[in-house]
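Run log, item B.
One chain of 261 residues. Sequence copied directly from the ordering sheet:
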Amino acid sequence: MSQLVEYERRGAVAHLTLNAPGSLNALSDAMLAALKGRLEALAEESAVKAVVLKGAGKAFCAGHDLKEMQAARTAEDGGAGYFADLFARCSEVMQLIPALPQPVIAEVHGIATAAGCQLVASCDMAVAAEGTRFGVNGVNIGLFCSTPMVALTRNVPRKVAFEMLTTGEFIEAARAREVGLVNRVVPAAELSAEAARLAETVAAKLSVAVKIGKRAFYEQLPLTLAEAYDHTAAVMVENMLHRDTNEGICAFIEKRKPDWA
């Protein structure tokens, strides 16, 4: 029996696949629970140095499951309790990604819409296939993408985000790269190889340094300039005192490969 979020380990890289192609990998209650479980488990897997997240079938992710959401309207409160719980659960899953010690790379094809676009924006990096379309298009059906907006506005310029949110128009992969939503755009036939190549490059670095650096990257973002320098200076001291960092610097000076434990 197939799982909603499939897991495959290739060396030091974990590959997660949203596996509900019939619904364009919509973030149903079950999908959110499965993704949360996978991410929480990855946080404990020290042998995994990087993660690739992709979708099965024709699309990366089409956002929330609208049929499931509409069914909740039959409750006595008109669905208010369910909707509050749903958006809280989705927000929790999105926040697990930057909190992971490993960098997470979205491998995107087809479409990434609404909460699916939010998922891309929540990942640390993204590689997209040519022709992929991105949108926060809830406004087209009367639902402003307010929670997807949080991740989107932390990736792209303010006016670009506002235009996407208020017009519901899609942007193509090339434009997504131009505005900072994705890192790389490649032909569809090369997508998986390129995402894996990026993940393997990251996975080959000293994992403790990447872990320390990823944590500091997100910690310093909301700080003032002076606070950010104070914080990251302390982080660099922590990094410098690590045994493998000392070995890496010695190896560089001595022109040899580091003997990292």
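Observations after the first pass:
- The beta strands are 5-10, 13-18, 50-55, 104-108, 111-113, 125-129, 133-135, 171-172, 184-186.
- The mean pLDDT is 96.
Flagged for discussion on Thursday.
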